[in-house]
Each structure stands twice: as structure tokens, then as C-alpha cells.
Design goal:
62% helix, 4 strands, two-stranded antiparallel sheet, 21 helices, mainly alpha, 2% strand, two-stranded antiparallel ribbon
Length: 490
């Protein structure tokens, strides 16, 4: 990536550093575990007032979160405490969330440069500005860190696949996949898909052993923590320990997961705070995956599709699909970097269509981030826009929301200056108008259909939107011209 692009992405991520976002149960649970680890224990009895996201086991209180974010934040906490510097949740989020977000965007940008030179910065900016990654860059949640580990495993395997077989890189990808699970349990889904991707080359047995060995090493921190905390490496903080809290609502026995529910899947995508309503640009990732497949990157396109489907299916069966208060279905965040990569192809093919949906998505994400990303279940774009119109902004370190707005504006200018000129494809103007109209119809109609139980009509709407995107990608695809023999010089 060019230096200007790196600078632009760092400025964008740095904008979130000035925000002091609301503190809730999720952040409190991670923070309590950091404090407990610093005290030399896995029990958060002393810090149970920080959060309600906790479990009771054999008379003691534990965080119900995977320990990865707490482990990653512990060195910064100890160093800051020893130096008598501020070491609260905001400062820890700079280390455990904001820094990983910067690395994630840079990694997405460098991966995109392998398939669409010159568009790495723009694509990474779309992920960082126009998806749920933006509000969660300033919140002490584990989603950004786990997304970094999961996508990094994909990027390493992709790089290895483009060169001679190297088992060391396969093992490194496995290590990253294991660390992703240590940070957030559902990343096992991405790890399984990437395991199949790793096997899809000659000598699959050796490659599978190398990948599995790496995963095992990445899981060591999680297994050691479970053994230390619960007396068994396989006893995770979800599972039977969840039901030990007296009077608590009991989730399904299998780690809170039951059979997938079609209605919940539709809500995750099309409700008032559904993924495609809040960030419609990510829907073009499906069309981009088709272009990627047609270009010859079939394995990579299948990985993107499989990871996206796996997370939607899993989350539709999870007992708390939306994860409580928040700007959207946060458990889907780890799949967003995978879907972002093919957006580079839609930026090249349909810059007006992709740009129109990116502007809408960025507007919603900026409004949510600048006001209150942790609104209750009734959160919707209209509520954030009303807060924005009334000047009801979130707290910042100084000077109100102005530093955040200024840094975002600088980043956008840098993106615009560093992006090559893109020529609209056939019917791109009509495509942009149709995409905006489709989003408006979805915004108005889909939540109403969900409220009235019209799942058939809603499913038909979603299917129609996806079919249109995929068919458009197939019809618009123009293969790169092949060099003629006479054009090749000796």
C-alpha cells in the first residue's frame, strides 16, 4: 500500500481515539477479568459490580467472556499502573481494540492490492468507515481483535497459496486461527473454513497437520485459562457454568446455541438495525465474490461466501443474536473483513453504485458512533439521525465532537486524493439509483414485514436483492484480455 493510504487509514482509526463511549456490561466483564488477572486470579469476585456478564461456578464469579482480549490488554494495564498513568477502559481500548483495528484495515488494504492494485486504501476505508467496525473501534469489545486474528489467518493462507507451498505459513495461519478462538469462541467457524482452504493444495495431510498444530498452539492460552479457572481445559465460560446463576434466564445448553431460526436470520439482516439496513454496502460483497470467482480466485471466493453464511446461520441460532444493546448484529463483525475484500472489484466495476451505498452506510455508522452506539433494542438509523440533529453527541476527551469530525474529514480527503480515477461501468448510474431505491424500500418495508410476521414476503425481498446483485455481477463481468502469442517478446 502507498504511504499516503497508510496515513489515511491511521487518521481514520485515530479519530475514534478521542471518543469516550458509554460503558456497559460487555466492557465491564472484560475489564473485570483484566483486573483479576493483574491480581493473579481468574475470579472476578472483587469486580463483580463492573458487569452482569458473569457466571457463577463453585461459589465464585467469573467473566463469561473468552479471555483473549483480557490477555492482550493485561501488559498495557500493568505497564500503565506501574507508571501511575491512567489505565481505565478507554486507555485499554486504545491498545486492545483501536490498535488491532488499524492493523486490520492495513491488512485488508494490502490483501486487496493483490487483486485490485490501487484500491486497497479505498476498500479498507469502506470497511473502517461504512460498517459496524467503525462504532466498535472505540468500544472495549472483543469483536475487532477476533476479526483481526481470523482475517489475518486468511491473508497468510492467501499469500502462501500464491507462492510455493510453505508449511511454516500454514502453521502460522493455524496459530492465528487458534488465537481468534481464544479471543471469541465463534471464530471456530472461520477456523474450520480456513482449515479446508489450507488443505486445498498438494500434500493435504502434511498441510492439515501443520495447520492443526498451529491451531493447537493458538488455543493454549484458552485451554490453560479454562484449566486454571474451572479445573478442566474443556470447561469454557459458556456452557453448564452459565446456568449456575440463581434465577438467571437459562440459554440453550450447547453454549447458548440451538437450531438456526429463519426469522432471526432475516432480523439479523433486514430489521431496523439489521446488517444490510445499517450498512447496505456490504451486500455488494456477494456480487464482488462472484466477480472474484469468475476471475479465477475460486477458492478465495468460496471462503468469503462460506464464512459469511456460517456466521449468519450460527447467529440465527444463538440465544442472544443481536448481543444486547448495540448498533447492530455485532456477532457478525468477524465476517465483515472477508466480505470487504471483494468490494474492491465492485468499486472497479460499479464505482457509482458502490459509492452511493458506501455513503449511506458511512452516514449511518458515523451518526451511531458520534451519538450513542449502545442504544437499546429499538436502535435504528432514524434515532441516530434525531440525536445528531439535536446535537446529542457522545462524550469525548476534549472539545466536544469537533476533533472526531475533523479527523474523519481529513481521512476522507486523503482517501479521495489517493484513490485512482474510476470509470463507471455499463448502467452504473441506473445501478446506483436502483441500489438506493432498494435500500429505501428495505428500510421502510422490511421492519414492518417482520413486525407483522410476513416472513415469506421478507424472504422473497431478500432473495430478490441477492439474485439481482449476483446476476448483475455475472453479466457485467468482463475477463481480462489475454496476451496474444505475437505480443510476447522473447
Amino acid at each position: 500500500m502507498p504511504r499516503a493510504g497508510v496515513l489515511a487509514l491511521l487518521v481514520l482509526v485515530g479519530a475514534s481515539a478521542v471518543l469516550l463511549q458509554p460503558f456497559g456490561y460487555n466492557q465491564g466483564s472484560h475489564l473485570a477479568l483484566v483486573h483479576a488477572l493483574a491480581d493473579g486470579t481468574s475470579r472476578i469476585d472483587r469486580y463483580r459490580d463492573y458487569s452482569g456478564d458473569e457466571v457463577y461456578y463453585r461459589g465464585h464469579v467469573y467473566s463469561n467472556k473468552a479471555p483473549g482480549l483480557a490477555f492482550a490488554s493485561l501488559p498495557a494495564y500493568l505497564a500503565l499502573r506501574a507508571a501511575h498513568l491512567p489505565h481505565g477502559v478507554h486507555v485499554l481500548s486504545l491498545w486492545g481494540v483501536l490498535l488491532p483495528a488499524a492493523i486490520l484495515l492495513l491488512l485488508v488494504g494490502s490483501t486487496v492490492e493483490r487483486i485490485e492494485p490501487g484500491l486497497g486504501t479505498l476498500t479498507a476505508a469502506t470497511l473502517g468507515l461504512a460498517t459496524l467496525v467503525l462504532p466498535f473501534t472505540s468500544l472495549f469489545f472483543a469483536h475487532v481483535l477476533s476479526a483481526l486474528f481470523g482475517f489475518a489467518a486468511f491473508a497468510v493462507l492467501w499469500r502462501e497459496r500464491d507462492g510455493p507451498p510453505r508449511l511454516a505459513l500454514v502453521a502460522a495461519a493455524g496459530l492465528l486461527a487458534g488465537l481468534a478462538v481464544t479471543t471469541e469462541y465463534p471464530l471456530a467457524l472461520a477456523g474450520a473454513v480456513l482449515g479446508l482452504y489450507a488443505l486445498a493444495r498438494p500434500q493435504p495431510v502434511r498441510r492439515g497437520l501443520a495447520y492443526a498444530a498451529g491451531v493447537a498452539v493458538g488455543l493454549v492460552p484458552l485451554l490453560a485459562y479454562n484449566w486454571w479457572a474451572f479445573g478442566s481445559p474443556t470447561h469454557v465460560s459458556y456452557g453448564d457454568a452459565v446456568s449456575a446463576q440463581p434465577g438467571a434466564a437459562h440459554p440453550p445448553a450447547f453454549f447458548g446455541v440451538s437450531a438456526p431460526r429463519p426469522r432471526v436470520a432475516l432480523e439479523l439482516l433486514l430489521s431496523s438495525r439489521g446488517l444490510l439496513v445499517l450498512g447496505p454496502v456490504i451486500a455488494l460483497g456477494a456480487a464482488g465474490a462472484v466477480l472474484l470467482y469468475r476471475r479465477g480466485r475460486r477458492a478465495e471466493a468460496l471462503v468469503v461466501g462460506a464464512v459469511a453464511v456460517a456466521f449468519v446461520v450460527y447467529d440465527s441460532g444463538f440465544w442472544g443474536a443481536f448481543g444486547g444493546w448495540g448498533p447492530g448484529p455485532r456477532y457478525l463483525i468477524p465476517m465483515l473483513p472477508f466480505l470487504a475484500v471483494p468490494l474492491a472489484l465492485t468499486w472497479r466495476r460499479w464505482p457509482l453504485t458502490t459509492g452511493a451505498l458506501a455513503v449511506v452506510s458511512a452516514g449511518i455508522m458515523l451518526a451511531a458512533t458520534a451519538t450513542d452506539p449502545l442504544l437499546p433494542d429499538g436502535a435504528s438509523p432514524s434515532r441516530w439521525w434525531r440525536l445528531l440533529a439535536h446535537g446529542d453527541f457522545t462524550d469525548t476527551i476534549a472539545l466536544g465532537i469537533a476533533p472526531f469530525a475533523l479527523l474523519v474529514a481529513v481521512a476522507v480527503v486523503l482517501f479521495a486524493r489517493g484513490t485512482p480515477r474510476l470509470s463507471p461501468g455499463r448502467h452504473d448510474v441506473a445501478g446506483a439509483a436502483a441500489a438506493l431505491a432498494g435500500w429505501l424500500v428495505t428500510l421502510r418495508a422490511a421492519p414492518a414485514l417482520l413486525r407483522h410476521g410476513s416472513l415469506g414476503a421478507l424472504g422473497a425481498l431478500l432473495l430478490a436483492l441477492l439474485v439481482v446483485a449476483v446476476v448483475a455481477a455475472t453479466l457485467e463481468y468482463v475477463p481480462a484480455p489475454r496476451a496474444r502469442t505475437s505480443d510476447v517478446r522473447p
